[in-house]
């Protein structure tokens, strides 16, 4: 079937991993537990992340109980409330979203979509997962440590993060920092794998510009993570020293409980810079894989080629690059020079351009498409709407003059939950509904899926839309109890109660989803190898679920881009990437350049 | 190199010029960096990531040096030694730098002999590199103990800003850890070279993959990087 010119084998031998070079598991333990197979590692990442994410979901319930009905649960005092907020934020951003999108989807999809047998360094890949698991265990351990987990807020701002009075000052902050460092070490081992696999281990015919956008998103996000996590790592090391050795990297001279602390001369703003140099790219580390995945979902379920593929790729790369020069827009109220604010506001608003390109291209892909409202498609559409909403409030907060009064209000909470909480999680759900058939060989139950989607989607709006108004009214974030505040009208209590009730319902819908994952494992409809009639390589594997080495004896050869849907004159409405071009190419078929 | 991918007819004939050509080259079939092995690509990308680690360390050190209101100790005096009654500023650091840069030279020679399949010379030069690296770490340990003896602690020192000791122990400690790991890698790879693992296709203990002589070069990349980082630490911490 190959029409490749002679000489290919001599030129590029490395990506055709000989069968002998693959690691072959010898026992149940090395096959399913200490597995070096990227597919198993991806599943391990996803399951672990969903498990720890469930903890964060329960924490958000507890916070909503307190906010909607203050004092109902007597064990939620201000200290516990801070601990819940901190752990909820950190778990959701780092241990759930980053881990699922890069560790989960990345591991499962990159080798399959590129026609590789596995990641390039399976052993390091395995270590990556186990280090991640260790990070999660250390994080969970802080719940049981004396004094409980840290309550410093997910940004862990010093000096308060390590001073007494902040809950979890004994052990919580130490375990949090150690856990983050472990996460970064683990991620680096995995991330190097993803990047090198994409750059150097594609199958024949798979040029970068033929890769599905999912891979582009995950690849760019991984490169960003490899450059952004170092800042957090360094910050964590220094804060650990401040806490354990009494150094003063972040600690200015200050009086605590009437006593002058031994610290002095450090710069609390330094932490903010380091944290947000990681923290802002982190937003896009989560968003870019979501962008990529949603592009593929829309294209597959609207039976239409993605509109403006090259532009989509460039938009991903441009967003990735720009996101490294916007970090201080999180610090407008830190007292920095107004010219810096001007600079960072400008760069922030420039990001709207590539982002808008992506949104328009999604809409134009849908335009006159043969839209199938499958569950993955519903989630993809939900993502677009939610992301646009969250992005628009980002334009508000990117401007210094608007941000300053809105800073630390629920408006900010509503903004980032919409744009980097709800939006990426909708894509994760969509992705799981989309690829579950490939992972297990069975479809997820569609009825439960639809209930899950509508409750989650409408519920997310019912939760976060009113929150914008609360923010505009001046309701501050991170407050355990509003108490008597003259500027906050009493009606906010009603709205808060409403939000809490919806939050419980939405949380329950996630339990339906988790139940669906288990239920469909045995009882789901048989999926076959390509239930969505998709073109990308992962649906063309000889076995479903894909076997060890993915491709049987011969690697697939790629002849076209990933989006040949509804090609005029073709026998079916999709043409897989590994199907050769018809010999005399008619002008109408040649999109792939 | 001919573009041999199973492309469409129009692709294989038309070679783009300008930026489109650059993109086409980068995104071309199978490998973005032609004939670069996975291991070498991975090491380069890891080093890029590690550059950001040390960049952040050095920038943070500069920031706290600015933020503290207490005068910064004079490094030339702090790191001076009395040898034979002569007061020599920075002498130990100068020797350490010389040793480390020399080790880069022996490493480069080892890479050369590795590609000539000269197992004995490769292994010896790698061990020599490791010995130079180990003596660097040894001198660093001497420097640490001297400063600790003089009362320098991460949280205080007798001469000025507390951040001096904090930054010193953190940055040199982190760099010294890198050197130590490098020494360990060098010894392991030297043993494999000596034993002839890369000729008889012996599989790795952990990865169960066959190694190649290229691993010497990859280890060398790491080693040169650690040297280069030291040059920046030397310039920004000791000379400034």
Please provide a written account of the structure:
The complex is a heterodimer of chains A (593) and B (240). In chain A, strands 1-2 form a two-stranded antiparallel sheet. In chain A, a hairpin with a 2-residue loop joins β1 and β2. With 593 residues, chain A is mainly alpha-helical. Chain A starts with 7 loop residues before the first helix and ends in a 70-residue tail after the last helix. Chain A has helices at 8-11, 28-33, 38-68, 78-114, 122-144, 172-200, 213-244, 268-301, 309-322, 338-350, 352-366, 375-398, 400-406, 410-440, 446-472, 491-523; strands spanning 255-256, 259-260. Chain A has one domain (32-252, 264-582): Cytochrome C Oxidase, Chain A. Chain A contains 16 helices and two strands. Residues 1-15 of chain A have low confidence and may be disordered. With 240 residues, chain B is mostly helical. Chain B has a single domain (61-238), classed as Four Helix Bundle (Hemerythrin (Met), subunit A), CATH 1.20.120. Helices cover 70% and strands 2% of the residues of chain B. Chain B has a two-stranded antiparallel sheet with strand order 1-2. Chain B is globular, with a radius of gyration of 23 Å. Residues 1-5 and 7-13 of chain B have low confidence and may be disordered. At the A-B interface, α6, α7 and α8 of A face α1, α3 and α7 of B.
Summarize the structure.
The complex is a heterodimer of chains A (593) and B (240). Chain A has one domain (32-252, 264-582): Cytochrome C Oxidase, Chain A. Chain A is built from 16 helices and two strands.
């Amino acid at each position: 079937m190959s029409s490749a010119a002679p000489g290919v084998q001599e030129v590029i031998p490395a990506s055709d991993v000989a069968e002998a070079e693959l690691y072959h598991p010898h026992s149940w333990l090395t096959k399913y537990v200490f597995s070096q197979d990227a597919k198993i590692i991806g599943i391990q990442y996803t399951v672990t992340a969903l498990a720890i994410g469930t903890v964060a979901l329960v924490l958000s319930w507890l916070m909503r109980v307190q906010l909607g009905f203050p004092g109902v649960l007597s064990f939620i005092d201000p200290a516990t409330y801070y601990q819940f907020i901190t752990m909820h934020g950190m778990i959701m951003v780092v241990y759930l979203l980053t881990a699922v999108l890069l560790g989960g989807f990345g591991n499962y999809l990159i080798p399959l979509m590129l026609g590789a047998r596995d990641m390039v360094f399976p052993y390091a890949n395995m270590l990556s997962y186990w280090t991640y698991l260790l990070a999660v265990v250390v994080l969970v351990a802080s719940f049981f440590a004396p004094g409980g987990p840290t309550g410093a807020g997910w940004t862990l701002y010093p000096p308060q993060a390590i001073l007494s009075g902040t809950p979890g000052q004994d052990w919580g902050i130490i375990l949090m920092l150690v856990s983050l460092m472990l996460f970064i070490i683990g991620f680096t081992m995995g991330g190097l794998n993803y990047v090198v696999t994409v750059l150097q281990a594609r199958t024949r015919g798979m040029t970068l510009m033929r890769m599905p956008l999912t891979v582009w998103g995950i690849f760019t996000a991984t490169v960003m993570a490899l450059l952004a996590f170092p800042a957090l790592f360094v910050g964590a090391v220094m804060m650990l020293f401040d806490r354990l050795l009494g150094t003063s990297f972040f600690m200015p001279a200050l009086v605590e409980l009437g006593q002058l602390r031994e610290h002095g001369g450090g710069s609390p703003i330094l932490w903010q810079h380091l944290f947000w140099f990681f923290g802002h790219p982190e937003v896009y580390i989560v968003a870019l894989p979501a962008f990529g995945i949603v592009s593929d979902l829309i294209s597959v379920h609207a039976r239409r080629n993605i509109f403006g593929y090259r532009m989509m790729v460039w938009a991903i790369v441009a967003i990735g690059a720009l996101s490294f020069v916007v970090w201080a827009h999180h610090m407008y109220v830190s007292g920095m020079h107004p010219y810096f604010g001007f600079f960072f506001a400008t760069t922030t608003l420039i990001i709207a351009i590539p982002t808008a390109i992506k949104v328009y291209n999604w809409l134009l892909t849908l335009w006159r498409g043969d839209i199938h409202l499958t569950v993955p498609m519903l989630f993809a559409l939900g993502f677009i709407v939610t992301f646009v909403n969250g992005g628009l409030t980002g334009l508000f907060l990117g401007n210094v003059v608007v941000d300053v009064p809105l800073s630390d209000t629920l408006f900010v909470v509503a903004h980032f939950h919409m744009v980097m909480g709800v939006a990426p999680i909708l894509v994760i759900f969509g992705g799981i509904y989309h690829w579950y058939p490939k992972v297990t060989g069975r479809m997820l139950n569609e009825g439960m899926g639809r209930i899950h989607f509508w409750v989650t989607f409408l519920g997310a709006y019912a939760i976060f839309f009113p929150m914008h108004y609360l923010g505009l009214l001046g309701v501050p974030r991170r407050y355990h109890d509003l108490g008597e505040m003259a500027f906050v009208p009493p009606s906010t209590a009603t709205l808060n109660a409403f939000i809490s009730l919806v939050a419980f319902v939405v949380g329950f819908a996630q339990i339906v989803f988790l139940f669906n994952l288990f239920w469909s494992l045995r009882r789901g409809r048989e999926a076959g190898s390509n239930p969505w009639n998709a073109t990308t390589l992962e649906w063309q594997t000889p076995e479903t679920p894909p076997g060890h080495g993915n491709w049987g004896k011969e690697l697939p050869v790629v002849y076209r881009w990933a989006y040949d849907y509804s090609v005029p004159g073709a026998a079916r409405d999709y043409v897989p990437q590994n199907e050769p071009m018809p010999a005399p190419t008619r002008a109408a078929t040649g999109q792939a350049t | 190199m001919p573009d041999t991918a199973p492309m469409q007819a129009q692709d294989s004939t038309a070679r783009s010029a300008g930026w489109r050509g650059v993109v086409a080259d980068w995104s071309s079939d199978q490998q973005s960096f032609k004939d670069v092995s996975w291991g070498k690509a991975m090491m380069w990308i890891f080093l890029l990531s590690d550059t950001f680690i040390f960049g952040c360390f050095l920038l943070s050190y500069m920031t706290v040096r600015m933020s503290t209101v207490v005068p910064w100790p004079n490094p030339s005096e702090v790191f001076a030694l009395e040898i034979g009654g002569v007061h020599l500023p920075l002498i130990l650091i100068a020797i350490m730098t010389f040793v480390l840069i020399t080790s880069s030279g022996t490493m480069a020679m080892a890479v050369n002999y590795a590609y000539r399949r000269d197992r004995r010379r490769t292994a010896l030069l790698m061990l020599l590199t490791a010995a130079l690296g180990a003596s660097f770490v040894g001198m660093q340990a001497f420097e640490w103990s001297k400063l600790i003896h003089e009362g320098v602690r991460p949280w205080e020192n007798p001469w000025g800003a507390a951040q001096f000791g904090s930054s010193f122990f953190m940055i040199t400690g982190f760099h010294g850890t890198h050197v130590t790991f490098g020494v360990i890698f060098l010894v392991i790879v030297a043993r494999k070279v000596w034993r002839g693992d890369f000729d008889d296709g012996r599989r790795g203990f952990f990865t169960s993959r066959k190694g190649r002589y290229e691993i010497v070069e990859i280890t060398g990349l790491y080693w040169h990087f650690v040297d280069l980082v030291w040059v920046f630490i030397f310039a920004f911490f000791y000379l400034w």
